[in-house]
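Workshop exercise sheet. Pairs work together: one partner reads the sequence aloud, the other fills in the structure field after running the prediction. Swap roles for the next sheet.
Pair: D.N. / O.F.
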Amino acid sequence: MKPISATTISLIAAITTTPAAAFDIPTGKDQLETNCTACHGTDVYTRADKRINSRPALSAQVHRCQVAQGLGWFDDEVENTAEYLNHQFYKFK
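Structure field:
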């Protein structure tokens, strides 16, 4: 998998400082259910040894996954899905 550039990480960090109310969490849930659960269930988000340890890392992982799947999501779509995951499973501040 191709590494994410420092510019992309900076952009993701800036986006993730946006209040949760600015995200469309129901759309993020729909995107996740449509595109992500075909590869894995929710167990990847609830396992004890989670690899994601911050909200920016969560956005980066969603970005990597959508690129790997060729989904062509815009930044807001990545963030909607990341925020749904955060709201539902991760609970980062």
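Discussion prompt: The two ends are 28 Å apart (CA to CA). What would you look at next?
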